[in-house]
Amino acid sequence: MIVEGRAVLVRGDNIDTDVLYPGAQLNIDEVEEMKPYLFEGLDPSLRDELGGDTVLVVDENFGAGSSREHVPLAMRAWGIRCLVGKSFARIFYRNCINLGLLVVTCPEVVDAATSGAMLSIDTETGEIDVDGRRFQAHPIAPFVLEMISAGGLVAWGERRLANS
After folding, report:
1. Residue 35: per-residue pLDDT
2. Residues linked to residue 132 through DSSP beta bridges, in sequence order
C-alpha cells in the first residue's frame, strides 16, 4: 500500500494525549463532534493545516500519558492519513493501529520533513520519499496493514468472523 500526503509538523518531545484532546470533552462519542477539540491544549491553529491529505510528522514519544482513544479518532476524522514519528508512546501506538490509523517510526524522515513537504510511504517495503529524498523505515507487518485497511481492529475482527 502506498500512502501519500502533505506534512504537517507537530514539534516537541513527550507530547501527551492530555494536551492533544481535552479531558472535559471525553464524554463525546460522535467522531465528527470530536474534531473541534483536537490539539486544543497544544496549538488549536494546527487544525487549520489539516485536510484529507495530511501526514502528521511528530517527534519523540508522541502520545504519552493517558490512553485517550479520542485522539486517533479525531485525527482520522480530520483526514490524517498517517503519522510518522521519531517514536510513539506504546499505548498511543496501539490505539492508532486498533482504530485504523497508520503509524510509522522513522526519525530520519522527521528530521528531513518540512511543513508542506510531500511524503510517500510504501508500507510493504518501508521506503519513504520526502520531496524526492528517500529514507528507509521498517516495513509494516501484513497483519497491521490488514487492520488498517479494514478500518481498525473491530472492523477487521467483524470481517474475519463474517468470512469464517
Report:
1. 97
2. none
- Taking only the tens place, the pLDDT of each residue in 38-68 is 999 999 999 999 988 999 999 999 999 878 8
Listed in sequence order, the residues at least 6 apart from 79 whose beta carbon sits closer than 8 Å to its beta carbon are 50, 51, 52, 53, 54
**CATH assignment at residue 126:** 3.20.19.10
Distance CA 37, CA 33 (A): 8
User: What is the C-alpha separation between 87 and 90, in angstroms, rounded?
Assistant: 9
Specify whether the CB–CB gap between 123 and 1 falls below 8 A: yes
Place of cell 498511543: 92
Report the domain count for the chain. Answer: 1
Band of the pLDDT at 104, cuts 50, 70, 90? Answer: very high
Structural domain that includes position 50 = 2-162
- CB proximity list for 162: less than 8 A, separation 6 or greater: none
